[in-house]
C-alpha cells in the first residue's frame, strides 16, 4: 500500500493518508484498453462485457493510453509520475526550510546579548 503525507494535523503532527488499492490490475486495464483501441469496440460495450463499474473509468484509461501512445498530446503516465514525485520533493524541502527557519530564530534569540 502507498502512503502520502497530506500536511500537518490540528496539533502540529503529520497526517498520513493511505492510498486505496486499485480495484483493477494493470493487466486488466491493458486488456480493456486494447479492446477499445486495437479492436475498435465502443467503450460502453467493453465496460459492460468486462463488468467495469463505470464506463467513464474505462474512458479515462483509454484517453491516457492514447496520450502514452502519442496519438493525442498531453502529459504521459511517466511525466505525471515525475511531476508527482517532484511536487512531493518540493513539499518536503519546504517543510525542511520551515524547520531550519524556526531553529535559526531560536538560536539567534538564545545568543542575542541584548536579551541578558
Short description:
The chain has four helices and two strands.
Supply the key terms.
116 residues; mainly alpha; Arc Repressor Mutant, subunit A; 2 domains; 9% strand; elongated
Beta-strand percent range: 5-15%
Biggest beta sheet attributes: 2 strands, antiparallel
Q: Which class of secondary structure composition applies to the elements?
A: mainly alpha
Radius of gyration: 23 Å
Count helical runs: 4
Average predicted confidence as pLDDT: 87
The count of strands amounts to 2
Cα separation of the termini: 53 Å
Strand order of the largest sheet: 1-2
CATH topology tier name of the largest domain: Arc Repressor Mutant, subunit A
- Categorize the overall geometry: elongated
Low-confidence stretches: none
Sequence of secondary-structure elements: EEHHHH
Q: What's the level 1 CATH class of the largest domain?
A: Mainly Alpha
Helix residue percentage: 55-70%
The CATH architecture of the largest domain comes to Orthogonal Bundle
* Overall structural domain count: 2
Helices and strands in order:
Blueprint: E1 3-8, E2 14-18, H1 26-37, H2 43-49, H3 55-68, H4 77-110
Helix pairs in contact: 1-3, 2-3
Task: Describe the overall structure.
This protein is mainly alpha-helical and 116 residues long. It has helices at residues 26-37, 43-49, 55-68, 77-110, and strands at residues 3-8, 14-18. It has 2 domains: 22-74, Arc Repressor Mutant, subunit A, CATH 1.10.10; 76-110. The chain is built from 4 helices and 2 strands. Strands 1-2 form a two-stranded antiparallel sheet. A hairpin with a 5-residue loop joins β1 and β2 (14-18). It starts with a strand and ends in a 6-residue tail after the last helix. 9% of the residues are buried.
